[in-house]
Amino acid sequence: MSHKELYQVIEDELRKGRAVAQATVIQTKGSTPRKAGSVMLVKSDGGLYGTIGGGCGEAGVIQKARLSLHDGKIREELADLTEDIAVESEGVCGGTFRVFIQPWQPGSDQLELVGRLKEYAGASHDVLVHHVVKAESHPDRLGSWIFQRADGSSLWPEPSPIDELSPPSKKKPVQLNSVGAYEVFTERWTPQPTLVIVGAGHIAEPLEEVGRILGFRTVVIDDRRLFANRERFPRAEQVICGPILDVVREISLDQHSYVVLVTRGHALDMDALKVMVERNDEVAYVGMIGSARRVKAVFQLMEADGYSREVLQHVRAPVGLSLGAETPAEIAVSIAAELVSVLHANGDDTRPMSKVSAVHPSLRGKI
């Protein structure tokens, strides 16, 4: 889930007069189911939103979160998953994770703050989000938030109540630091990635849904109202019905945009790809559907028309990872898997995890 979706859920609960507890993983050691920055919401009606890994570790966090919903107090939970691996138990991973639990209570101040978080989560630029998770000498500041621009200048409050806040690196966007009398959990929020699906056919439906689940802002484009409509894509950020090439030429794109060309025909895919190449935007990803033979033919035609081979080498075509996919849903999964790989800068290492983790053959099937 995206940060924007997370704080939208909190806002919705508060507007209904219901408290909600936010449980955030702020530190991990060893092997854990989720990384620092993972969030789960515990609602006053017993419902959950998101997960920090499941199993016994999460169960302990839920129990403490319910106490916080009852008394409004901030809590911490240290989930220990290092018990004897010979013991059959849910959630045994071999590490520990520290969770900060903060309740949100209905009220104008809390609504204003969650609105600010939602605004920064949808920003078109990087935002540094600092959350005070320990403040022994200033208990009134425990759980407070500080927002900065990527260059460290203040966004809110201004001036910052805490000096010398350290920005996390782009390669490691989450960190926990001691700053004087405080302990501060800091995240670098980058703009939400946008998945632009050009063509609203059978692959587009599962691809839009999976992309949205993965945290992408989804946009679907087609020139056929029978396909490009809210009935088929009720939760997409945008559904644009109009001349495909004109829309692709005019739509706003940036370095956080992922463009997938899956129109109704290879000629239209090629024309849309030409528009993308002519735009020369620094987008994160451009992929085009098609068999290897058809993609080769498209590239040859484009080279004959003067498009450079160097530019075409950056196009992911055939689109997706090699999963043996056949159905529209399977093809959507293969495309989504490639999007995730690019999003996390995983390069071309898409081997099975059993190969990457180098598990000893004698242990396979026993963990």
Written account of the structure:
- The chain is of the alpha/beta class and 367 residues long.
- It folds into three domains: 1-121, no CATH class; 123-132 and 141-192, no CATH class; 194-343, 3-Layer(aba) Sandwich (Rossmann fold), CATH 3.40.50.
- 31% of the residues lie in helices and 24% in strands.
- The protein has ten helices and 15 strands.
- It has helices at residues 3-15, 55-71, 108-121, 204-213, 244-250, 266-279, 292-304, 309-312, 328-343, 353-356, and strands at residues 20-29, 39-43, 48-50, 75-80, 96-104, 127-135, 145-149, 154-156, 174-179, 182-189, 194-198, 217-222, 238-241, 257-261, 285-288.
- The longest helix has 17 residues, at 55-71.
- The protein is elongated.
- Residues 84-91 have low confidence and may be disordered.
Q: What are the key terms here?
A:
single chain; 367 residues; alpha/beta; Rossmann fold; 3 domains; five-stranded antiparallel β-sheet; 10 helices; 31% helix; 24% strand; elongated
User: What is the CATH H-level superfamily of the largest domain?
Assistant: NAD(P)-binding Rossmann-like Domain
CATH architecture of the largest domain: 3-Layer(aba) Sandwich
Order of helices and strands: HEEEHEEHEEEEEEHEEHEHEHHHH
Q: What is the top-level CATH class of the largest domain? A: Alpha Beta
Question: What is the radius of gyration computed over CA atoms, rounded to a whole number of angstroms?
Answer: 23 Å
Instruction: Using the coordinates shown, work out and report the CATH topology of the largest domain.
Output: Rossmann fold
What is the β-strand count? 15
Low-pLDDT regions:
84-91
Strand order of the largest sheet: 3-2-1-5-4
What is the total number of structural domains?
Answer: 3
The end-to-end span amounts to 28 Å
The number of helical runs is: 10
- Please state the structural category: alpha/beta
Task: Determine the strand fraction and express it as a percent band.
Answer: 15-25%
Q: How would you classify the quaternary structure?
A: single chain
Helix fraction?
25-40%
Main pleated sheet? 5 strands, antiparallel
Query: Given the C-alpha coordinates, what overall shape results?
Result: elongated
